[in-house]
Amino acid sequence: MTATTNEFTPNYIISPGEILEETLDARGLKKREFADRCGRSAKTISQIITGDAPISPDTAIAFERVLGVSAALWNSLESRYRLQLAKQEERQRLAAQEQWAMQFPVSKMVKFGLLKKATGGELVEQLLDFFSTGSVEAWESMFLRQQQAVAFRASQVFLSHPHAVAAWLRWGERDAEGVETAPFNKDAFQQALDEIRGLTRLPAKDFQEPLHELCRKAGVVVLWRPELDGTRLSGAAKWLSKDKVLIQLSIRHKTDDHFWFSFFHEAGHILLHGKKDVFIDEASNSATPEEQEANNFAQERLIPRREWRMFVAARKFSAAAVNAFAARIGIAPGIVVGQLQHNKHIPYRYLNGLKRTFSWVEKKYN
16-94: what CATH class? Predict the structure, then answer.
């Protein structure tokens, strides 16, 4: 996860003018006398004290000569004051954009530690920091451009909220930045997928680390991030750079057939499609050629078409037959059940006991 700096930010602002006034009082210097010694007008000194005029670098040098307090300190106090003032004014301006912030799944983002509990301008500010974006207008411009590059896959029943999708994707991007990988290598990733296919027969606690490692050595980061309110996502694939790719999974269905199909589907996008696109396993343009190609890739990688046709032709779909077929081709029986259900060879209520249900515990693989 991206490192953050803990910085003390008081909710009050002290101007250098206040410190100057206290210093003059402590030394018994009248403002008029001080102004004369500095070669400045009494009006200028009064405006500095009230915060209406800044301490310029040459004035800071004059203060140093008269008071013995370094010009660097006066400049630092002035700079910090103006920055705090600007932040306060910015937060007040951002408060008017709270409606934009409320389009995000704020409660869940707070729950997962992505944001701190806040309202108004402070909440807007946190979201802009989360997205590494300078303004709401800049975020909307970037997001709209990204939306044009997004391809979706999933059931037409579910539709995600775009702000929630953006937050979920950004969560994965931020965390993936801290994962070191080898430069992406297409051949290495294809070889990794051959090994990963065999991992489908293992429980999550046993396949999780090998899956991470095999992908990382090929230039791919695999992360699981829980769904946020407003998302109906199973997975996403995105190029983070020319040498690094992210596969982000949600395990929204929590069964091995959905998990592995989503993983290999996203892998298909990486191997078959462009580096500029973001592919999200969701519910909009499921009939696009790219999505169908990724579907075909996942189906062929998990259950070779020739093997599948022979198995289906036999019309023997008992638990014993499914287990025997899955063992022979080296995959989890739950994947076979999922494909039988999806292709309407058996009802969705049938053979679910062969599917493995699991949860995912994210580890650090840096």
Answer: mainly alpha
d(CA 58, CA 357): 70
Q: Specify the 3-state DSSP secondary structure of 302.
A: helix
d(CA 19, CA 131): 37
Token pair 């912030």 is found at 101
Q: How far apart are CA 168 and CA 278, in angstroms?
A: 13
Q: What is the C-alpha separation between 99 and 120, in angstroms, rounded?
A: 9
pTM to 2 decimal places? 0.79
Write the pLDDT tens digit of every residue in 67-117: 999 999 999 999 999 999 998 888 888 989 999 999 999 999 999 999 999
> CA torsion angle for 111, 113, 119, 120 (degrees, to 10)?
-140
Domain-by-domain residue ranges, the chain? 16-94, 98-145, 149-298
Alpha carbon 287 to its chain centroid, in Å, reads: 27
Helix segments in the chain, DSSP class H: 16-27, 31-38, 42-50, 57-67, 71-95, 98-101, 106-111, 120-130, 136-148, 162-176, 186-199, 204-216, 256-272, 289-302, 305-314, 319-329, 333-342
Q: pLDDT at residue 160 above 80?
A: no
Question: Can you tell me whether residue 283 is helix, strand or coil?
Answer: coil
Q: Is residue 365 predicted with pLDDT exceeding 80?
A: no
Closest CA to 346 of 37, 141, 354: 354
